Amino acid sequence: MTTANVSVEPAPARGLSSAVRDRLQQLLAFASLIVIAGFFSIASSSFFSYSNITSILFSTVVIGTLALGTTFVIITGGIDLSIGTGMALCAVMSGVFIVNLDLPVGLGVLAAILFGGLIGLVNGFNVAIMKIPPFIATLAMMLVAQGLALVISHSAPIYFTDDPSYVKISTGNLIPGVDFPNAVLVLLVAVVVSAILLSKTILGRYTYSIGSNEEATALSGINVRTWKIVIYTLAGLFIGLAGVMISARLGSAQPATGMGYELQAIAAVVIGGTSLAGGKGSIVGTLIGALIISVLNNGLQIMSIPQEWQNVILGIVILVAVYADMIRKKEA
């Protein structure tokens, strides 16, 4: 009896400590965002111009949307390397549905998003049922999606010239009299939906549970394989949404885009405090991480830093974020 009492006592303290650490991680990420933005505002007087802020927000929409779905996957202890080229494939499919097949814009958008869900479903099946390691399964899908995007589009962009309403999904203004792009509103809605799913639903509870201890979760009677498929499919829906948003912004479906976005999205998730080991993460942190990546990319471009050095800096940021995650795990 005394042993049982002793084992129960420390649990609340550990939970509280973990919650405090998570909150501090978010505050640290937000503080880093402020510092980075402050540095670039000093380095360039045009950084805080309206056009540049809009450019940062547009960039955050794509990276952030991909990162939202990736957050669920990484919390389970998995990874998804197919989100970048999958996004390009979904953009191409939106062009096929709307331009080539002449479907109504709304139906074409829905079909493109669902096609992203199909990509996620295949990833989930390969990981959960075929037992292929997530890194290998999604790496294979990355190559498949990259090839299919080029094959289906015949390696040429698909333009939405005759479908201005599609372009307005991203660049239009839903709020009358307010010059605020629809793309940002779409991201905010996606953030709210993701936060509710992760913190208020059984999907979120199982996502954390699988990442914390998959074996114990399975022994408790939860069908881990089914829920993994659901989680990867959800991530795929965000891939489809990102494909719609980037093609709507560009006014065309570019089959060669997408490479590199997976690294930026994963970096955003890790910078936001989601552990690569699984079991820990938040949507708010991911959004802050996406803003950091967008501000960093934008600021380096304004300062005319060569692309190769931008890649070096992004790589260093990823290393620092992963190292910080390792330190957090040791202190937990």
Structure write-up:
- There is one protein chain.
- This protein is mostly helical.
- Helix content is 77%, strand content 1%.
- It has helices at residues 2-8, 10-43, 50-75, 83-100, 105-128, 134-153, 164-171, 182-200, 202-212, 214-219, 224-250, 261-271, 283-302, 307-331; strands at residues 158-159, 252-253.
- Strands 1-2 form a two-stranded antiparallel sheet.
- The longest helix has 34 residues, at 10-43.
- It is globular, with a radius of gyration of 20 Å.
- The two termini are 27 Å apart.
Question: Which labels suit this protein?
Answer:
disordered N terminus; 332 residues; ABC transporter involved in vitamin B12 uptake, BtuC; two-stranded antiparallel ribbon; mainly alpha; 14 helices; 1% strand
Q: How large is the radius of gyration?
A: 20 Å
Give the oligomeric state.
Answer: single chain
Biggest sheet record: 2 strands, antiparallel
CATH architecture: Orthogonal Bundle
Summarize the amount of helix as a percent range.
over 70%
| Global structural class | mainly alpha
According to CATH, what is the class?
Mainly Alpha
Total strands? 2
Shape: globular
Q: Helix count, per DSSP? A: 14
Kindly report how far apart the N and C termini lie.
Answer: 27 Å
Q: What value does the average pLDDT take? A: 89
Give helix and strand order, one letter per element, not per position: HHHHHHEHHHHHEHHH
Tell me the fraction of residues in β-strands, as a range: under 5%
Uncertain residue segments: 1-16
CATH topology: ABC transporter involved in vitamin B12 uptake, BtuC
Strand order in space, largest sheet? 1-2
How many domains make up the 3D coordinates? 1
